[in-house]
Amino acid sequence: MIDIHTHIIPDLDDGPPDIETSVGMGLVAAREGITAIISTSHNEEASAVGYEGMQARLEAVREAWVGAGLDIRLELGLEIYLRPDTVAELKAGRVWPLAGSQYVLVELPYQPWPAYAESALFGLQVAGYVPILAHPERYTALQTDPNRMYALAERGVLAQVTAQALIGSHGNAARRCAETLVRHKLAQFLSSDAHGLSERKRAPVLRQGLRVAEGLIGAEAANTMVEENPRYILERKLLTPEPERVSAPRWSFGKLLGRG
Questions:
Q1: What is each CA distance from 170 to 89, 121, 200, in whole angstroms?
Q2: Cis bond before residue 112 (omega within 30° of 0)
Q3: CB–CB of 192/163 below 8 Å?
Q4: Which terminal Cβ of the chain has fewer Cβ within 10 Å, N or C?
Q5: Residue 204: which residues within 8 A CB-CB, separation 6 or more?
Q6: DSSP secondary structure letter of residue 203
Q7: Rounded Cα distance, 118 and 113, in Å
């Protein structure tokens, strides 16, 4: 499996506090069957370090993991807080894509949905990037209307659901939204968004969430979210979504609140 959204570099943003915790995350990932990881620290802190500095920090993690007997491919990426000037930041090298590809992992505020979101996402596409919306199940606008994600996916915007959300760790609203996005091909990636080893910080675990996804869309399609689709990023190939519109009864307020 390939995990495209993780925070494994120590002493940076809200990731692991030290290299020992980072190595522990690697050991968990190996037990899960994860063979490649993209490190996606938050851009606010990582940009201050710079691309070369972040590569050096990732190399230190790589050496520590190898020293612990781990054979996991590590690539550098970023979790970018999407703003109207993100394209300019990318062109200036202050933020960067995933693993040197054309794919960019972007996040939005959980609420409200920003007025600039669609134009900023499409601006990325015009500039030649492929946006991947991080943890869309957490955004209240998508929890109440997942067809907002359908409209984005129709235009080529991809999405990454967090595995822990599928098992209910982020609450019922996020779980229901995650299920809907997976079931209707509105999310193409299943990732851990790991920050550490504690329950609060999330370890790099995918199997429990993958089992839920298998129950929703079958084993073959679920495995695509953790194997084939992430490989498109590493191989710099174009992934085209095939979304399905969500019928209103599946995402009514009553169902989100557990009354449906």
A1: 31, 25, 10
A2: yes
A3: yes
A4: C
A5: 3, 6, 8, 25, 26, 28, 29, 32, 34, 37, 192, 194
A6: -
A7: 10
Alpha-carbon distance 58 to 68, whole Å? 15
pLDDT per residue as tens digits for the range 211-222: 999 999 999 999
- Bridge partners (DSSP) of residue 158 are 132
**CA–CA distance, 251 with 177 (Å, rounded to integer):** 8
Q: By the 8 A CB rule, do 43 and 9 touch?
A: no
Q: Which class for 13: exposed (0-12), middle (13-18), buried (19 or more C-beta within 10 A)?
A: middle
pLDDT, tens digit, for every residue of 146-158? 999 999 999 999 9
Q: Report how far residue 108's alpha carbon sits from residue 205's, in angstroms, rounded to the nearest whole number.
A: 23
pTM of this prediction exceeds 0.70: yes
